[in-house]
Amino acid sequence: MKKLTALLLTACLAVGLTACSGSSADTESTDSQETEAAEETADAEETASAETTEERTTFTVGFDAEYPPYGYMDENGEYVGFDLDLAQAVCDLRGWELIKTPINWDTKDMELNSGNIDCIWNGFTMNGREGEYTFSVPYVDNRQVIVTAEDSGINTLEDLAGRIVGVQTASAALDVLQSEDYADLTSSFGTLQEFGDYNNAFVELQAGAIDAIAMDIGVAQYQLESRGEGFKMLEEPLNSEQYAIAFKLGNEELKDQVEESLMELVNNGTFQSLAEEYGIEEFICLTPDSDASAEAEDAAAEDTAAEGTEDTAEAAETEE
Amino acid sequence: MSFEMMLVQLAQGMVKSLGIFMWTLVISLPLGLLVAFGRMSKNPVLRTIIKLYISIMRGTPLMLQLLVVFYGPYYLFGLQIGGSYRFIAILIGFGINYAAYFAEIYRSGIESMPLGQYEAARILGYSRGQTFFRIILPQVIKRILPSVTNEVITLVKDTSLAFALVYMEMFTIAKQIAAANTTMMPFVIAGVFYYIFNLLVAVIMEWFEKKLSYYR
User: Fold this and answer.
1) Which of A91, A136, B33, B186 could be disulfide-bonded to A98 (CB atoms 3.0-4.6 Å)?
2) Contacts by A7-12 with C-beta closer than 8 Å and gap 24+?
3) pLDDT tens digit string along B91-140?
4) Which of A35, A73, A99 sits opposite B180 (nearest CB)?
5) Would you say residue B103 lies in a domain?
């Protein structure tokens, strides 16, 4: 009798095990791309940890796929956006393979710390987060603005008193509204309602469930443009701040490499033309002559000196 | 994005959802039986452990369990998790969660069998294994099929929880298309897809029930 029980248990275990091994096979077949990508990510991590940066072959960018125009799914189901195209251009220069990994914005720290992604490059506000990540030079001047329905009667920040204001969970706008400087304004709101994605927020705004939404100006422009009539943006911004690429705290090496290539893109005009393509040319804050670029070039030059020959840096200098 | 393109994208997501669904069943149905045996074991230590396991699995949200399975290795043990772990984490999360539910369903079926059947089988000279596989289990399967159907249909809908780990199943894709195109259309399409999927599941399970309704 005991033998039979044992047999039964073994059989069940065997089925379970086959199932498990089968599952990984399935991953490979159905998500061959993802698996491949993942394996390469793993490789990339090993490379990074071994500090032999020349061997880095992939660059994994984490982004919120629901954040146009910085990162979103286009007509053909591909992930595009200003930040992603920029990342692609950097990878082209570096000879890395870009892996675009969509993440949930509220678990972005877990993704970055656990090594799933190499950086967060997605309209990421650096102000107030300086101690938590290693940031690149800021590349976009952003403002937090209030979007509301055209007939809401809200025209200034003061008009928001007693109203329901929506803001994305874990967003920079939320940080701003919760900071001490804005305590008076926030406490004048009826409710500060957090939401997960902008689509839901706009539906709530249309339906009258919330009265206004606080968001980044680039996103606001995209939303207003694609949604057409019925919404307006308050002229008075909440604040101004800057976007930068966030790397895991202490990952200076990767930051320097990406920054160096980014500056090259600024100097050869790719950066500006991408910004125009996505309609955010008013907000970019890197110009070939800007101080930031000079700084970064210094850093790049130091890098070059330290690491020996770097073709990309030389190319950048010749183009000047 | 055109309507056709949305359909194509969502259909691709549907394939991923189907993958989660199939593998979860393959893992959790046998595992559930094992857990049910543990739950009914005469060994009090094993029984208590299994009870605790079922209690946790049923008492916490599946989405939370998925997050723990995916991020736990890093936060608890400092392990670096690669991207391929995303799908494996989903299978582990769904597998152990559904095994707990299936275990209780199996138990309800097994314990509903009259003791007289065991006694009769013993007198007729059946061993314990024979009794279970030839007499008890076939009847149990017939009895628990409606409850299993219930659970399987819930599973179809629960696959959408994989969005918490940004696995590219249908719901995640619907959310992304909706955001990029500022429209709610993808959710409507996804809803129709889920409904058709479940209709199929219900039809197949009904066919099974009919097939198994001999001796009635």
Assistant:
1) A91
2) A7/B129, A8/B129, A8/B132, A8/B133, A9/B34, A9/B37, A12/B30, A12/B31, A12/B33, A12/B34
3) 999 999 999 999 999 999 999 999 999 999 999 999 999 999 999 999 99
4) A73
5) yes
Q: Which residue has the tokens 């393509």?
A: A277
Residue B133 C-alpha, separation from nearest chain A C-alpha, in angstroms? 10
CA distance B64 to B68: 6
Amino acid at B145: L
In a domain, B216, yes or no: no
Instruction: Give residue-wise pLDDT tens across range A99-127.
Output: 999 998 888 888 898 888 999 998 898 98
The answer to whether A27 contacts B84, with C-beta atoms less than 8 Å apart, is yes
Predicted ipTM > 0.85: no
Where in the sequence is the domain holding B18, given as residue range(s)?
Answer: 3-211
Instruction: Find the CATH number of the domain harbouring B48.
Output: 1.10.3720.10
Chain B positions touching A231 (Cβ under 8 A) are: none
**Is residue A214 within 8 Å of A177, Cβ to Cβ?**
yes
Number of domains, chain B = 1
pTM of the model: 0.72
Torsion angle of C-alpha atoms A11, B90, A22, A60, degrees rounded to 10: -150
CA distance B27 to chain A (A): 6
Report yes or no: A162 and A188 within 8 Å, Cβ to Cβ.
yes
Number of residues in chain A: 320
Nearest CA among B199, B190, B200 for reference residue B7: B190
Q: Which domains does chain A have, with CATH numbers?
A: 58-139+244-319 (3.40.190.10), 143-240 (3.40.190.10)
Burial of B163 per CB tally in 10 Å (0-12, 13-18, 19+):
buried
CA-wise closest residue to B148 among B12, B36, B70: B36
Q: At what angle do helices A252-267 and A270-277 cross, to 10 degrees?
A: 80
Residues of B in contact with A113 (CB under 8 A): 74
In a domain, B115, yes or no: yes
Which chain B residues contact residue A229 at CB under 8 A? none
* Single-letter amino acid code for the residue at B184: M
* Calpha distance A165→A160 (Å, rounded): 8
CA–CA gap between residue A115 and residue A251 (Å, rounded): 12
